[in-house]
Design brief:
Length: 370
Amino acid sequence: MSASTLDVISVAGARPNFMKIAPMAHALAAKEGVRHRIVHTGQHYDKNMSDTFFTELGIPEPWKNLGVGSASHAKQTAEIMVGFEEIIATDPPDVVMVVGDVNSTIACALVAVKAHVPVAHVEAGLRSFDMRMPEEINRVLTDRISDSLFVTEPSGMANLAAEGVSTDRTWMVGNVMIDTLLAHLDRARASDALHRIGVAEKSYGVVTLHRPSNVDDPATLRGIFGALEEIAGRCPLVFPVHPRTASRMEAAGLRLDPERGFVTCDPLGYVDFLRVMESAKIILTDSGGIQEEACLLGTPVLTMRENTERPITIDIGMNQLVGSDPDAILRAATGILDGDRVTPAAPDLWDGKAAERIADILVQRYGRTV
Ligand code: UD1
């Protein structure tokens, strides 16, 4: 009787990667004959930006950690490439799986493809069409050199088709990040995070902010901050501060004053943050993934960006783009706070089974018969 074996290396680098790797690790572990090694690049390294997620989401210990840490784009990308090349040269897998759009994603995809190891990209096809965003550059380039492209929403399929990617390499599989959300919702609902943070159910909003385009320019940051301060006057705002934002705010002399309605905390763990998002009246964010999570949780979201690579979240009525203009942010927030709560909405195939679909395709496509 013949059996199939498959050797996969997956790449985990930054916080938004970890919730995508978790369901893949579980789905691959459930398959016989699969060896799965996780390489952590070390792009994110603080306990609350990395280790916490491995523990909470039951992700196996990384097989190797490249420990690159923070640096300029060139230095960070280059260091990841040098470390990853050594791994690929020593013990090459059948396929390298990369997720999302961070620097670790493109760095490892580029190394693998040059070593003739096929690359599978999870969360392929998303486009903001804004090449000033480092993530957009990472997305476009990673898709161009990937052999298998796993897509979350219809726009992704259309974008890849428009770029000439053959349909025998693209699959609409759903959303692995939503797999993780659905798997942890019960735990989240049992979390005492609101009590610890000091807010009451459905009485507050949540803010996350870390994009260079919003936080690196002091004038833009001040404008957003002014709008948030007005909103916080009406509805307390829980603001877990990203390390990049913390340092930019300090440099700009901006302080989140509890007297003015800000509830500050360090970046939260995954389960606690789900709890905080689900029970919020409004989410203001510039994150990619949070736009998607908010849809399933039924919390209206304002995206403080000019564009989104996740248009399905707007199409289903859960997300509005407000850019960084203080008046637009304030107007839209007032509309939500005065309006009725919306019903959660799930795009097609965001059903908790995306990782299983991907694992099946990986085994079929790259497995070896022994
Ligand atoms: C990266 C991703 C972004 C993602 C975000 C989520 C890229 C290009 N960007 O942005 O797409 O949305 O992660 O967080 O890959 N820092 C720490 N501790 C850490 C990590 C970072 O203090 O564990 C600080 C450092 O000062 C660092 C800064 O945060 O310079 C930025 O980190 P970096 O990984 O360069 O980018 P992010 O802004 O986190």
